[in-house]
Design goal:
about 475 residues; mainly beta; 35-stranded parallel β-sheet; 2 helices; about 5% helix
Length: about 475
């Protein structure tokens, strides 16, 4: 009997030991499989019967809910609990049968304010990761309920057809900014065809990195409400005047992000809709190797304190770069604003528009209606080793300065084809924002934008 009990005990111990990792994880398929216990792909939970939520709720810190490829109609998920700093709780989409999991809702652009949200993040849920999902036709693909998260990862999530891709509330208070959402990474995500915004931060998010993300609003066809914005940092603004004042968003970095095709038809009025947006209370925003293309207002429309742009490209927006701050200075290094397009309404196009303080080094402003526009007496703009240029084909104004504004040019070249200055000899002006088409063959790396610049290493060949 002793031998028998010992044998049974060893068998149980062996079974628990060998199967503990797999048994801890859960598995979900659109219609489930086998016993539908969630213990394996062969016995996956049934998403059509609430299996996605069951799979998430069942896992503990350090465990994963795997979601197999296929279409998941009308599913929603409430993300609560979370893990620990050492043991994240994860939901991971898995390519099975040649496709990723597709979560498909019933939202439509014709009624943008109505419809289901796909993934809701409960207040305080921390140390979790959502990965490898396609989300389609939901009002909000990912939205927070109160914020106050620490250590969240949103990776390789593609959103198509939504009012908003991600709405992240910080939940920070003016008296307690530290409780706001922080330690956030959003990476390799695409937001395509939306009526309002790709990502919005509001109310005290900090220590955030947004990397390799695309926000393509879809242009006129998707502009069914005013107005589209690619990446938006709202800060402490709140629509509820009675609410306790929120803390500001700050220390947010965008790397290799692109914002395209935000559109707003305001008739004879001001056409809004921007690529990158920041309101007045955020601070320490940083943009590296980012692009804003074909938006009906600003490529960048930034009111924040001390934004930094490095190696950024703004093309064919009405106002490629637009800065307002008088409480700090917007700093641009190796940036280019070119080919501004006014698609309708009032106002004028510009390469660089300012109401506040801007310092730009080794930047190019080319073929804009106004290349450098100091639009208010409060504007103070300093251009160092820059190029301001206009071709005959798109002859614009080098600069305009509102009475009282101050424009300082230091070692900066000004060229108007056939009129004055030296031709910077751009390699090619048939340029889409990639390659060396707007490198100056006359000045090389000494003046203006140059494609050989590295945001991490600093200007190639720059003087100390």
């Amino acid at each position: 009997m002793k031998v028998t009990f010992l044998s049974i005990g060893l068998m149980l111990l062996s079974t628990l030991s060998s199967g503990s990792v797999q048994a801890a994880d859960t598995f979900v398929l659109p219609q489930g499989a086998g016993t539908k216990s969630g213990a394996s792909w062969e016995n996956a939970l049934d998403a059509s019967a609430g299996g996605l939520q069951k799979g998430w709720d069942a896992i503990a810190p350090g465990e994963t809910c795997f979601v197999g490829g296929g279409e998941y109609k009308g599913v929603t998920l409430s993300v609560g609990g979370g893990g620990t700093e050492a043991r994240y709780k994860k939901l991971v989409g898995v390519n099975r049968g040649g496709e990723r999991p597709r979560l498909v809702g019933t939202w439509t652009k014709e009624m943008p304010a109505k419809g289901p949200d796909c993934i809701t993040l409960k207040q305080g849920a921390s140390f979790w990761s959502l990965e490898n999902l396609d989300i389609r036709s939901y009002r909000n693909a990912v939205i927070t309920s109160g914020g106050r998260h620490t250590g969240i990862r949103l990776l390789n999530i593609d959103v198509t057809g939504a009012r908003a891709g991600m709405e992240l509330a910080g939940g920070g208070l003016a008296a307690q900014p530290e409780i706001g959402t922080h330690d956030v990474v959003i990476q390799d995500c695409d937001f395509v065809n939306f009526t309002k915004r790709g990502i919005r931060f509001q109310g005290g998010n900090y220590k955030v990195r947004v990397v390799n993300c695309l926000a393509d609003a879809g242009g006129k066809v998707w502009a069914t409400e005013p107005f589209q914005m690619g990446f938006s940092v709202q800060g402490s603004q709140t629509s509820d005047k009675k609410a306790t004042e929120a803390s500001a968003d700050h220390d947010i970095t965008f790397v290799n992000c692109t914002a395209n095709n935000s559109y707003n038809d305001a008739g004879a009025g001001y056409w809004n809709a921007d690529g990158f947006v920041a309101e007045s209370t955020p601070y320490n925003l940083r943009y590296e190797n980012c692009k804003a293309l074909d938006n009906t207002d600003g490529g960048w429309d930034d009111k924040s304190r001390n934004p930094v742009l490095i190696n950024c490209v703004a093309l064919r927006n009405k106002r490629n770069f637009r800065f307002w701050t008088t409480k700090g200075t917007a700093t641009l290094t190796n940036c280019i604003g070119a080919f501004a397009v006014k698609r309708g309404g009032n106002s004028t196009g510009a390469g660089l528009w300012s109401k506040g303080n801007v310092r730009a080094e080794n930047c190019t402003f080319h073929d804009n209606t106004i290349n450098v526009d100091l639009d208010e007496p409060t504007a103070r703009v300093e251009l160092v080793r820059c190029i301001i240029s206009s071709s005959k084909a798109k002859r614009g104004t080098p600069s305009t300065v509102e009475a009282g504004g101050q424009l300082t040019l230091t070692d900066t070249a000004v060229w108007e084809e056939g009129k004055n200055g030296d031709d910077p000899q751009f390699a090619s002006t048939a340029w889409d924002g990639t390659g060396n088409g707007m490198d100056s063959r006359r000045y090389g790396k000494a003046k203006g934008y140059h494609s050989g610049f590295s945001a991490s290493a600093g200007r190639v060949g720059a003087r100390n």
